[in-house]
Amino acid sequence: SRSSVIDSLRGCSIAGVKIPKEELRKKITFPEYLRLAVMEAIQAKDIKAAAVVQHYEAANADGVEPVRPPESPLVVFINSRSGGRHGPELKIRLQELMGEEQVFDLSVVKPHSFVEHGLACLEHFASLGDKCAKEIREKLRIVVAGGDGTVGWVLGCLGELHKHRRLPVPPTGIIPLGTGNDLSRSFGWGGSFPFNWKAAVKRTLDKIATGSVVHLDSWHVLISMPGGEELDIPYSLKTTEETPLDQELEVDTELPEKVSCYQGVYYNYFSIGMDAQVAYGFHHLRNEKPYLAQGPIANKLIYSGYSCKQGWFFTPCSSDPGLRSLKNILRIYAKKVNSSQWEQIPVPSSVRSIVALN
């Protein structure tokens, strides 16, 4: 089912425009007391921790001149494992431009921690009368440096704000570091990391700070699986309460007595079958042997290898039961809007993958 609407920023080309470093820094950087307070709140997992309170009291004491908020405050989430060697180098460059406290490495700070404690810190300060914190919370924009999976992960965590009425939900811009980068391409941020990236970083941050906002639909997925197995689920999914099947749906197979249920959100597409298995294989290989995934070209070669192994191009499916048609393991039912009847959709024997496209 379709979920909440997430804002995304549309990129616009301003190649050749020189962005002064100090001018950009002034436009996007939090005042020091807020940078430190947000970081302390995340590390302590407490927006009322002593160190956080001290930063508020020091900035709002009698006789202290109020600090002006930046014009377009930004926070960056970067997957330093994406983009091969460019990931760590880009992280250093971003920290030079806007400070370490506003650039979060996803291997250290998860986006839900930022939402739960970092943004909550700004909201708490605003509730106490801090006008600078209030304006930053209202104007904040998010930058995600990574592939489609990383972008989806961050957007999913930001979507929790909409669910809990913690508005506005910050719009999100993308620095493409992944292999496919379909979402980045769709919104005008490009399909690959630029070759002259060091010169492009300032322009990209400025584009995100000033770009127009467009809407992106998100879709909610519920997954029920036989219970009892321990699964290494991705960040995009989280466990949820058991969700019974619609009683109007008649299933011609025996259902397991015990199930494990998961829920998640997708923005590009939700895939079952051969291409999903290829992506799954690549993900685990990169985690186990990160030295093999050194950049987009190497990643695409690995993807091609997995595609051949899975029979996407020429491996005969009869040679491996795992490559059999989805028709043998899948049933698809759909219910139209304003209808109570479920309709089974036939799956041809030649189909190797099914994609639900946003």
Description:
The protein is of the alpha/beta class and 358 residues long. It has a domain at 2-217. 37% of the residues lie in helices and 19% in strands. The chain has 11 helices and 12 strands. Strands 1-6-8-7 form a 4-stranded antiparallel beta sheet, covered by helices on one side. Helix 7 (148-163) links the parallel strand 4 and strand 5. Helix 1 (21-28) packs across helix 9 (197-210) and helix 4 crosses helix 9. The longest helix is centred in the first third of the chain and has 17 residues, at 111-127. The mean pLDDT is 83.
Concise summary:
This protein is 37% helix and 19% strand. The protein has 358 residues and is an alpha/beta fold.
Question: Which key features would you list for this structure?
Answer:
ATP-binding; four-stranded parallel beta sheet; EC 2.7.1.107; 358 residues; transferase; stress response; ATP-dependent diacylglycerol kinase activity
Largest sheet: 4 strands, antiparallel
The Rg value, from CA coordinates, equals: 23 Å
In round numbers, the mean pLDDT is 83
- Quote the beta fraction: 15-25%
Query: What would you call the shape?
Result: globular
Major β-sheet strand ordering: 1-6-8-7
Distance between the termini: 11 Å
Query: Total number of helical segments?
Result: 11
Number of DSSP strand runs: 12
Helix content: 25-40%
Structural class: alpha/beta
Low-confidence stretches: none
Q: What is the H/E order?
A: EHHHEHEHHEHEHHEEEEHHEEE
Organism: Genlisea aurea
Keywords: ATP-binding, Kinase, Nucleotide-binding, Stress response, Transferase
Family: Belongs to the eukaryotic diacylglycerol kinase family.
Protein name: diacylglycerol kinase (ATP)
